Amino acid sequence: MRKVKLQMQVSLDGFVAGPNNEMDWMTWNWDDKLKAYVQEITAPVDTIILGRVLAEGFIPVWKERSKEADADAFTHKMVNDPKVVFTKTLTDSPWENTTLAANIVEEVMKLKDQPGGDIVVYGGACLASAMIKNNLIDEYHIFVNPVIIGKGKPIFADLDSKLNLKLVRASPFDCGITVLCYTPANG
Amino acid sequence: MRRLIVSINVTLNGMMAGPHGEMDWHMPYWDDEMSHHAAEQLGSADTLLLGRITYQGMAAYWHGKPAYFGARADIDYAEMMNSHHKVVFSKSLIQLNGWHNSRLAVNTLAHEVKALKQLPGKDILVYGSGKLVMALIQRNLVDEYRLWVYPVVLNNGRLLFKGLQKRVGLKPAQVKVFGNGVVILSYELT
Q: What domains lie within chain B, and their CATH numbers?
Protein backbone atom coordinates (compact mmCIF):
# COMPACT_ATOMS: atom_id res chain seq x y z
CA MET A 1 0.00 0.00 0.00
CA ARG A 2 1.20 3.50 -0.81
CA LYS A 3 2.39 5.71 2.01
CA VAL A 4 0.53 8.92 2.85
CA LYS A 5 2.69 11.68 4.32
CA LEU A 6 1.39 14.80 6.01
CA GLN A 7 3.70 17.83 5.89
CA MET A 8 2.44 20.96 7.64
CA GLN A 9 3.76 24.04 9.39
CA VAL A 10 2.38 24.27 12.92
CA SER A 11 2.64 26.98 15.57
CA LEU A 12 4.03 25.94 18.95
CA ASP A 13 0.46 26.00 20.27
CA GLY A 14 -0.74 23.60 17.62
CA PHE A 15 -2.35 25.70 14.87
CA VAL A 16 -1.73 25.30 11.15
CA ALA A 17 -3.29 28.65 10.21
CA GLY A 18 -4.72 31.72 11.92
CA PRO A 19 -8.49 31.95 12.38
CA ASN A 20 -8.80 33.63 8.95
CA ASN A 21 -6.20 31.36 7.38
CA GLU A 22 -3.35 33.75 8.18
CA MET A 23 0.05 32.30 7.32
CA ASP A 24 2.14 35.37 8.06
CA TRP A 25 3.42 33.90 11.32
CA MET A 26 5.20 31.05 9.53
CA THR A 27 8.91 30.89 8.91
CA TRP A 28 9.46 30.80 5.16
CA ASN A 29 13.19 31.48 4.81
CA TRP A 30 14.11 27.82 5.09
CA ASP A 31 17.79 27.05 5.42
CA ASP A 32 19.50 24.64 3.03
CA LYS A 33 19.32 21.69 5.41
CA LEU A 34 15.57 22.06 5.82
CA LYS A 35 15.18 22.34 2.06
CA ALA A 36 17.21 19.12 1.76
CA TYR A 37 14.95 17.44 4.34
CA VAL A 38 11.91 18.37 2.29
CA GLN A 39 13.57 17.20 -0.94
CA GLU A 40 14.30 13.87 0.74
CA ILE A 41 10.75 13.24 1.87
CA THR A 42 9.25 14.49 -1.39
CA ALA A 43 11.49 12.51 -3.74
CA PRO A 44 9.38 9.30 -3.58
CA VAL A 45 6.12 11.29 -3.90
CA ASP A 46 4.12 11.15 -7.13
CA THR A 47 0.73 12.46 -5.99
CA ILE A 48 -0.18 15.62 -4.08
CA ILE A 49 -3.42 15.92 -2.12
CA LEU A 50 -4.86 19.34 -1.20
CA GLY A 51 -8.01 20.85 0.21
CA ARG A 52 -9.74 23.30 -2.11
CA VAL A 53 -8.91 26.50 -0.25
CA LEU A 54 -5.22 25.61 -0.06
CA ALA A 55 -5.24 24.49 -3.71
CA GLU A 56 -6.56 27.88 -4.80
CA GLY A 57 -3.33 29.42 -3.48
CA PHE A 58 -0.89 26.55 -3.90
CA ILE A 59 -1.48 25.62 -7.53
CA PRO A 60 -1.23 29.10 -9.13
CA VAL A 61 1.70 30.13 -6.91
CA TRP A 62 3.84 27.14 -7.90
CA LYS A 63 2.79 27.56 -11.54
CA GLU A 64 4.07 31.15 -11.50
CA ARG A 65 7.33 30.12 -9.85
CA SER A 66 7.89 27.44 -12.49
CA LYS A 67 7.95 30.09 -15.21
CA GLU A 68 11.10 31.67 -13.78
CA ALA A 69 14.40 30.78 -15.42
CA ASP A 70 15.95 29.56 -12.14
CA ALA A 71 12.99 27.37 -11.19
CA ASP A 72 14.38 24.19 -9.66
CA ALA A 73 13.36 20.54 -9.94
CA PHE A 74 11.26 20.74 -6.79
CA THR A 75 9.24 23.64 -8.22
CA HIS A 76 8.58 21.71 -11.42
CA LYS A 77 7.57 18.69 -9.36
CA MET A 78 4.99 20.75 -7.46
CA VAL A 79 3.50 21.76 -10.81
CA ASN A 80 3.81 18.48 -12.68
CA ASP A 81 2.86 15.91 -10.04
CA PRO A 82 -0.76 14.77 -10.39
CA LYS A 83 -3.00 16.32 -7.79
CA VAL A 84 -6.26 15.44 -6.09
CA VAL A 85 -8.19 18.36 -4.66
CA PHE A 86 -10.96 17.68 -2.17
CA THR A 87 -13.96 19.93 -2.58
CA LYS A 88 -17.67 19.90 -1.83
CA THR A 89 -18.37 22.81 -4.16
CA LEU A 90 -16.31 22.60 -7.35
CA THR A 91 -17.56 20.34 -10.13
CA ASP A 92 -14.99 21.01 -12.83
CA SER A 93 -11.27 21.24 -12.15
CA PRO A 94 -9.86 24.62 -13.25
CA TRP A 95 -6.32 23.24 -12.95
CA GLU A 96 -4.09 21.00 -15.08
CA ASN A 97 -3.14 17.47 -13.84
CA THR A 98 -5.74 17.82 -11.12
CA THR A 99 -8.77 15.70 -10.38
CA LEU A 100 -11.47 16.62 -7.89
CA ALA A 101 -12.93 14.36 -5.25
CA ALA A 102 -15.52 14.75 -2.51
CA ASN A 103 -15.27 11.65 -0.35
CA ILE A 104 -11.98 11.78 1.52
CA VAL A 105 -11.88 8.27 3.00
CA GLU A 106 -13.03 6.55 -0.15
CA GLU A 107 -10.72 8.47 -2.44
CA VAL A 108 -7.61 8.17 -0.26
CA MET A 109 -8.13 4.43 0.29
CA LYS A 110 -8.54 4.04 -3.47
CA LEU A 111 -5.29 5.93 -4.09
CA LYS A 112 -3.43 3.90 -1.48
CA ASP A 113 -4.56 0.67 -3.10
CA GLN A 114 -3.28 1.68 -6.51
CA PRO A 115 0.32 1.02 -7.45
CA GLY A 116 2.45 4.13 -7.22
CA GLY A 117 4.80 6.22 -5.13
CA ASP A 118 4.15 8.12 -1.94
CA ILE A 119 1.27 10.55 -1.54
CA VAL A 120 1.80 13.88 0.23
CA VAL A 121 -0.90 16.03 1.80
CA TYR A 122 -0.07 19.66 2.56
CA GLY A 123 -3.41 20.68 4.11
CA GLY A 124 -5.51 22.65 4.69
CA ALA A 125 -6.73 22.28 8.23
CA CYS A 126 -10.10 20.72 7.32
CA LEU A 127 -8.64 18.08 5.04
CA ALA A 128 -5.82 17.25 7.44
CA SER A 129 -8.26 16.97 10.35
CA ALA A 130 -10.48 14.57 8.41
CA MET A 131 -7.55 12.43 7.28
CA ILE A 132 -6.13 12.26 10.80
CA LYS A 133 -9.52 11.40 12.28
CA ASN A 134 -9.88 8.55 9.79
CA ASN A 135 -6.39 7.22 10.41
CA LEU A 136 -5.25 7.86 6.84
CA ILE A 137 -1.83 9.33 7.65
CA ASP A 138 1.17 6.98 7.66
CA GLU A 139 3.85 9.56 8.38
CA TYR A 140 3.55 12.96 10.08
CA HIS A 141 6.12 15.67 9.36
CA ILE A 142 5.24 18.43 11.77
CA PHE A 143 7.19 21.64 11.13
CA VAL A 144 7.10 23.31 14.56
CA ASN A 145 7.44 27.09 14.17
CA PRO A 146 8.95 29.16 17.02
CA VAL A 147 5.81 31.20 17.63
CA ILE A 148 2.66 31.00 19.77
CA ILE A 149 -0.26 32.51 17.86
CA GLY A 150 -3.05 32.20 20.46
CA LYS A 151 -5.84 31.11 18.17
CA GLY A 152 -6.26 29.44 14.83
CA LYS A 153 -7.08 26.18 13.09
CA PRO A 154 -5.93 22.90 14.66
CA ILE A 155 -5.64 19.54 12.89
CA PHE A 156 -6.12 17.12 15.79
CA ALA A 157 -9.45 18.44 17.10
CA ASP A 158 -11.64 15.89 15.29
CA LEU A 159 -10.12 12.80 16.85
CA ASP A 160 -12.57 10.81 18.93
CA SER A 161 -9.95 9.04 20.98
CA LYS A 162 -6.34 9.44 22.04
CA LEU A 163 -3.78 9.01 19.27
CA ASN A 164 -0.50 7.30 20.19
CA LEU A 165 2.45 8.03 17.94
CA LYS A 166 6.00 6.82 17.56
CA LEU A 167 8.76 9.39 17.10
CA VAL A 168 10.90 8.65 14.06
CA ARG A 169 13.16 11.69 14.35
CA ALA A 170 13.31 15.21 15.75
CA SER A 171 15.37 17.67 13.70
CA PRO A 172 16.08 21.29 14.68
CA PHE A 173 17.00 23.61 11.79
CA ASP A 174 18.89 26.92 11.75
CA CYS A 175 15.92 28.86 10.39
CA GLY A 176 14.10 28.12 13.68
CA ILE A 177 11.77 25.33 12.60
CA THR A 178 12.04 21.98 14.37
CA VAL A 179 10.65 19.06 12.39
CA LEU A 180 9.04 16.27 14.39
CA CYS A 181 8.43 13.11 12.37
CA TYR A 182 6.00 10.49 13.72
CA THR A 183 4.25 7.34 12.59
CA PRO A 184 1.11 5.96 14.23
CA ALA A 185 2.08 3.62 17.09
CA ASN A 186 0.97 0.00 16.81
CA GLY A 187 -1.85 -1.03 19.11
CA MET B 1 20.12 37.76 36.49
CA ARG B 2 18.16 34.71 37.50
CA ARG B 3 15.97 33.19 34.83
CA LEU B 4 12.41 31.99 35.08
CA ILE B 5 11.90 28.71 33.25
CA VAL B 6 8.53 27.16 32.56
CA SER B 7 8.93 23.38 32.21
CA ILE B 8 5.78 21.49 31.24
CA ASN B 9 4.66 18.12 29.93
CA VAL B 10 2.50 18.61 26.83
CA THR B 11 0.89 16.45 24.18
CA LEU B 12 1.83 16.95 20.53
CA ASN B 13 -1.32 19.05 20.17
CA GLY B 14 -0.31 21.41 22.97
CA MET B 15 -2.38 20.09 25.88
CA MET B 16 -0.99 19.98 29.38
CA ALA B 17 -3.77 17.83 30.83
CA GLY B 18 -6.97 16.02 30.00
CA PRO B 19 -10.31 17.81 30.33
CA HIS B 20 -10.46 17.12 34.09
CA GLY B 21 -6.77 17.62 34.72
CA GLU B 22 -5.79 14.02 33.86
CA MET B 23 -2.06 13.38 33.56
CA ASP B 24 -2.26 9.63 32.99
CA TRP B 25 -1.18 10.01 29.34
CA HIS B 26 2.36 10.95 30.33
CA MET B 27 3.03 8.39 33.05
CA PRO B 28 3.80 5.37 30.87
CA TYR B 29 6.70 7.31 29.31
CA TRP B 30 8.43 8.28 32.51
CA ASP B 31 11.68 6.31 32.67
CA ASP B 32 15.21 6.55 34.07
CA GLU B 33 16.47 8.68 31.21
CA MET B 34 13.75 11.25 31.81
CA SER B 35 14.08 11.10 35.61
CA HIS B 36 17.78 11.76 35.31
CA HIS B 37 17.22 14.76 33.08
CA ALA B 38 14.46 16.10 35.33
CA ALA B 39 16.78 15.83 38.33
CA GLU B 40 19.52 17.73 36.45
CA GLN B 41 17.03 20.43 35.58
CA LEU B 42 15.82 20.68 39.15
CA GLY B 43 19.43 20.91 40.29
CA SER B 44 20.02 23.97 38.13
CA ALA B 45 17.22 25.74 40.01
CA ASP B 46 16.72 26.59 43.66
CA THR B 47 13.25 28.07 43.59
CA LEU B 48 9.87 26.81 42.40
CA LEU B 49 6.76 28.88 41.73
CA LEU B 50 3.50 27.04 42.09
CA GLY B 51 -0.21 27.62 41.80
CA ARG B 52 -2.47 26.30 44.54
CA ILE B 53 -3.54 23.03 42.94
CA THR B 54 -0.01 22.04 41.92
CA TYR B 55 1.28 23.01 45.36
CA GLN B 56 -1.31 20.94 47.18
CA GLY B 57 -0.70 17.92 44.98
CA MET B 58 3.07 18.15 45.27
CA ALA B 59 3.15 18.91 49.00
CA ALA B 60 1.07 15.84 49.69
CA TYR B 61 3.41 13.68 47.61
CA TRP B 62 6.85 15.02 48.48
CA HIS B 63 6.38 16.16 52.06
CA GLY B 64 6.12 12.67 53.40
CA LYS B 65 8.34 10.97 50.80
CA PRO B 66 10.69 8.47 52.43
CA ALA B 67 13.81 9.72 50.67
CA TYR B 68 15.89 6.73 51.67
CA PHE B 69 13.98 4.32 49.43
CA GLY B 70 14.38 4.30 45.66
CA ALA B 71 16.99 5.03 43.01
CA ARG B 72 19.66 7.66 43.57
CA ALA B 73 18.12 10.05 41.03
CA ASP B 74 14.79 9.78 42.84
CA ILE B 75 16.39 10.42 46.22
CA ASP B 76 18.21 13.48 44.87
CA TYR B 77 14.97 14.68 43.34
CA ALA B 78 13.04 14.28 46.57
CA GLU B 79 15.75 16.12 48.51
CA MET B 80 15.67 19.02 46.07
CA MET B 81 11.87 19.19 46.00
CA ASN B 82 11.87 19.42 49.76
CA SER B 83 14.77 21.86 50.12
CA HIS B 84 14.10 24.23 47.21
CA HIS B 85 12.44 27.53 48.06
CA LYS B 86 8.77 27.29 47.06
CA VAL B 87 6.59 30.32 46.42
CA VAL B 88 2.89 29.62 46.11
CA PHE B 89 0.51 31.95 44.31
CA SER B 90 -3.08 31.60 45.41
CA LYS B 91 -5.98 33.92 45.99
CA SER B 92 -7.74 31.46 48.26
CA LEU B 93 -5.11 29.81 50.48
CA ILE B 94 -4.41 31.66 53.71
CA GLN B 95 -1.80 29.28 55.01
CA LEU B 96 0.33 26.44 53.72
CA ASN B 97 0.38 22.97 55.22
CA GLY B 98 3.95 22.95 56.40
CA TRP B 99 5.94 21.71 53.39
CA HIS B 100 9.51 22.71 54.15
CA ASN B 101 10.73 26.05 52.77
CA SER B 102 7.39 27.13 51.28
CA ARG B 103 5.73 30.50 51.54
CA LEU B 104 2.62 32.12 50.21
CA ALA B 105 3.28 35.05 47.89
CA VAL B 106 2.09 38.29 49.43
CA ASN B 107 2.72 40.69 46.60
CA THR B 108 1.52 40.64 43.01
CA LEU B 109 3.01 38.08 40.65
CA ALA B 110 5.03 40.69 38.77
CA HIS B 111 6.36 42.19 41.97
CA GLU B 112 7.32 38.84 43.47
CA VAL B 113 9.00 37.56 40.31
CA LYS B 114 10.95 40.75 39.70
CA ALA B 115 12.13 40.73 43.31
CA LEU B 116 13.20 37.08 43.04
CA LYS B 117 15.09 37.74 39.82
CA GLN B 118 17.05 40.55 41.48
CA LEU B 119 18.32 38.24 44.22
CA PRO B 120 21.40 36.11 43.65
CA GLY B 121 20.57 32.47 43.10
CA LYS B 122 19.93 29.71 40.59
CA ASP B 123 17.07 29.47 38.11
CA ILE B 124 13.42 29.77 39.08
CA LEU B 125 11.35 26.84 37.83
CA VAL B 126 7.64 26.69 37.14
CA TYR B 127 6.07 23.28 36.62
CA GLY B 128 2.44 23.00 35.49
CA SER B 129 0.10 25.46 37.08
CA GLY B 130 -1.76 26.44 33.91
CA LYS B 131 -3.22 29.66 35.28
CA LEU B 132 0.11 30.67 36.76
CA VAL B 133 1.89 30.07 33.44
CA MET B 134 -0.68 32.13 31.57
CA ALA B 135 -0.33 34.97 34.08
CA LEU B 136 3.46 34.86 33.73
CA ILE B 137 3.25 34.96 29.94
CA GLN B 138 0.84 37.89 29.96
CA ARG B 139 3.22 39.86 32.17
CA ASN B 140 6.29 38.95 30.08
CA LEU B 141 7.99 37.28 33.04
CA VAL B 142 9.05 34.03 31.34
CA ASP B 143 12.65 33.71 30.12
CA GLU B 144 12.49 30.19 28.74
CA TYR B 145 9.94 27.49 27.90
CA ARG B 146 10.87 23.85 28.04
CA LEU B 147 8.05 21.85 26.55
CA TRP B 148 8.35 18.11 27.12
CA VAL B 149 6.43 17.00 24.03
CA TYR B 150 5.01 13.49 24.29
CA PRO B 151 4.24 11.33 21.22
CA VAL B 152 0.56 11.46 22.15
CA VAL B 153 -2.39 13.48 20.91
CA LEU B 154 -5.33 13.95 23.27
CA ASN B 155 -8.69 14.41 21.62
CA ASN B 156 -9.87 16.61 24.48
CA GLY B 157 -8.01 18.53 27.14
CA ARG B 158 -6.59 21.77 28.50
CA LEU B 159 -4.44 23.74 26.11
CA LEU B 160 -1.30 25.19 27.67
CA PHE B 161 -1.44 28.49 25.83
CA LYS B 162 -5.23 28.82 25.76
CA GLY B 163 -6.58 32.31 25.72
CA LEU B 164 -3.37 34.09 24.82
CA GLN B 165 -4.44 37.31 23.16
CA LYS B 166 -1.21 38.20 21.45
CA ARG B 167 1.38 36.43 19.35
CA VAL B 168 4.61 35.49 21.08
CA GLY B 169 7.71 35.08 18.91
CA LEU B 170 10.34 32.74 20.32
CA LYS B 171 13.98 31.89 19.83
CA PRO B 172 14.62 28.14 19.58
CA ALA B 173 17.24 27.02 22.08
CA GLN B 174 17.72 23.26 22.48
CA VAL B 175 16.06 20.09 21.34
CA LYS B 176 16.54 17.05 23.58
CA VAL B 177 15.36 13.67 22.33
CA PHE B 178 14.70 10.77 24.70
CA GLY B 179 14.83 7.16 23.58
CA ASN B 180 11.14 6.75 24.33
CA GLY B 181 10.11 9.41 21.79
CA VAL B 182 9.53 12.30 24.20
CA VAL B 183 11.22 15.48 22.95
CA ILE B 184 12.04 18.61 24.95
CA LEU B 185 11.64 21.72 22.80
CA SER B 186 13.29 24.69 24.52
CA TYR B 187 12.61 28.27 23.51
CA GLU B 188 13.85 31.55 24.87
CA LEU B 189 11.86 34.73 24.76
CA THR B 190 13.13 37.28 22.27
A: 4-189 (3.40.430.10)
Number of domains in chain A: 1
The DSSP letter of residue B178 is -
Q: Which residues of B touch A161 (CB under 8 A)?
A: 155
Give the span between the Cα atoms of B77 and B97, in whole angstroms: 21
Report the distance separating Cα A82 and Cα A61, nearest Å: 16
Q: Is the dihedral of CA B113, B117, B120, B126 positive or negative?
A: positive
d(CA B86, CA B50): 7
List CB contacts of B75: < 8 A, sequence separation 6 or more: B67, B68
Please state, in angstroms and rounded to a whole number, the distance separating the CA atoms of residues B43 and B22. 27
Closest CA to A101 of A63, A139, A130: A130
Neighboring chain A residues of B172 at a CB cutoff of 8 Å: 146, 172, 176, 178
Burial A111-137 (b: 16+ CB within 10 A, else e): beeeeeebbbbbbbbbbbbbbbbeebb
Q: What is the CATH number of the domain that holds A24?
A: 3.40.430.10
Which H helix or E strand runs over B50?
A: strand B45-51
Residue B162 dihedral angles phi and psi, to the nearest 5°: -60, 135
Structural domain of A142: 4-184
CB contact under 8 A, B151 and A149: no
Q: What is the mean pLDDT of chain B?
A: 90
Among A92-96, B90-94, B134-138, top mean pLDDT goes to A92-96
- The ipTM (two decimal places) reads 0.94
DSSP state of A36: H
Tell me the residue length of chain B: 190
pLDDT in tens, A113-124: 999 999 999 999
Pick the residue from chain B with its C-alpha nearest to A174: B172
